[in-house]
Specification:
Rieske Iron-sulfur Protein; Naphthalene 1,2-dioxygenase Alpha Subunit, Chain A, domain 1; 2 domains; 6 helices; binds FE2/S2 (inorganic) cluster; binds fe (ii) ion
Length: 346
Amino acid sequence: MTAKVISDVDADALAARGLPGLWYVVAKSVQLRAREVLGVRALGRQLALWRGEDGAPRCVEDFCPHRGAPLSRGVVIDGNVACRYHGVMLDGTGTIVRVPAMPDCPLEGRQAIIGYATAEANGAVFVYIPSADRPEPPPLDLPAEFTDPGWSGFLCSGLWNCNYQLAAENTADPMHGIYLHADSFTLAYGGREDLVRIDPADRGFLITRVAQTDQNFDWCHVVTEGSTNFIRLDIPYPMAGGPGGPFRVLGFMTPVDEHSTRIFFWRNRQVSGIAREAWRFLFRGFFEARHWEVLEQDREMLEAVPHTAREREMLYQHDAGVVRLRRIWRERARQILAAPTELTPS
Ligand code: FES
Ligand SMILES: [Fe+2]
């Protein structure tokens, strides 16, 4: 058997749509209310989410196999989703469990649509989007900050009208902090001129400013080899920032489609006891609005970058993280496309 030849163009096109074979954050836990169905879009797929009788999330294609009505307009009955149009009920595997309008309907028991594996952690709902080479969900690799009770965080989420790669590249670019966010509370410090270096790090790589540490957004850890991709970075806080040392950001980006991204950013500090309460109070009352201002600066800039910008970019040394990320995405897309069969988006 001859190996498939995958062009850079095809690999880059798949990477731009979003790489399957990973767990993605699709919603905040609070959005998925008991007995309600939530419609979300991820990697070009329409998904319907709800909670089963055990409270755990379920996820299927947002498509009723009877005549195509969106299941996200349905209701939850006995832990299953029931289509609003004629009442067909499906479970979280996408199997028709009941056709209430038709006694002994032969459709009952049929696996009719795609069911997706789900997980819930740290206030967020994750869905596994399978790829041809990784059809089964691997264990979800969560950041240590999610499981270590010494960390306390808040989840911020937003919709950015730009490709997810632009959002990830922005987070893997420590040199933009002192420019784009120079007027902010926490990112106004340090030199405006520097070099960056790249080093291997756990499940990915580290990009670091060479001439300064702990003054601004000076490093980030890009995790590309786990079962979910995310970026970790620290923002040093001035004394007025209260307890807890630097502000640890964990950024997850879910491609909605090629031109929009749902961002999920956890903002954490290492605090416990009374310091934890002080931090949570300060965040809600003071820092949260400032963090949204910084995120809005990112969003506005990225949404204004033309879709075709890559064709005319002139990169320089600071873009080492961007280049590395693109190489990783291309290689991963190549592996997926080379696998014997490909699952097509619904
Ligand atoms: S379209 Fe869903 S039950 Fe008919
Ligand atoms: Fe930024």
